[in-house]
Amino acid sequence: MNALPTIQQLQSQLITPENFQPYGQVIYASVDGKNFDQEDAQLNLQNGIPRFYIMRLHEKGRQFHSITRHIKCTQCLGSLDGKEWFMAVCPPDNEIDEPVLSKIAAFRIPGNCFIKLETGTWHAGPYFDHESDEFIDFYNLELSDTNVEDHFTHNFLKSHNLSFEMI
Q: Which helix (H) or strand (E) segment is 163 a member of?
C-alpha cells in the first residue's frame, strides 16, 4: 500500500518585478508611444512560429503535483478579466532535468499585469480561487508547437510522493 502524499505548503507572495526577476518579468501598462526598453517583455520566440491565444481554464484551487518548463521560448500569461491568480515557479537551470525543490516559489498575481516566464523556467499554473462553475480566460504567448515539442514536465507525486498547495 502506498503512503498518502505529503502536501507541502508554499506561502504565496504578491508579485513584484524584483521578487519575480529570477523567473522572468512582470509587465504593467505603459503609456502609448513609449519607446521599447527593459520594462517591456524581453521575448524569445525565434525558434518557431509564435502563437498568441486565449485559453479558458476551469481549474480551481491552488494544489499541484506537476511542474513544466519550455526550453525553446519564453511564455507570457495574463488574466483577461482582471482577476487575481496564482503561479508556482522554479528558476531555469538547463544543466539539470528536474526542478530544485528548495527553489520553488509561489506568487499571487493581480489582474493588472502579466508575466513573462524566462526560457526554461519551471511553472505550475495558472491557478485561481473561484466557484467550480466559473472560469478565467488567460492570454498565452508561446510557440505554435510548445505543447507538443517543448513541454517537459516533472511529476513530484512520482518522484517524491509530494504535492504542493499555494497559500
A: strand 162-166
Q: What is the largest CA-CA distance in the chain?
A: 62
pLDDT in single tens digits along all 167 residues of the chain: 568 999 999 999 999 999 999 999 999 999 999 999 999 999 999 999 999 999 999 977 899 999 999 999 999 999 998 999 999 999 998 678 899 999 999 999 999 999 999 999 999 999 998 765 689 999 999 999 999 999 999 999 999 999 999 99
Query: Which residue type occupies 42?
Result: Q
DSSP 8-state secondary structure symbol assigned to residue 103: G
Residue type, 163: S
Cβ proximity of 137 and 39 under 8 Å: no
* Distance of alpha carbon 127 from alpha carbon 84, whole angstroms: 9
Q: Domains in the chain, ordered, with CATH?
A: 6-28+44-166 (2.60.120.480)
Backbone phi and psi for residue 74, each to the nearest 5 degrees, phi listed first: -80, 165
Query: CB of 94 within 8 A of CB of 120?
Result: yes
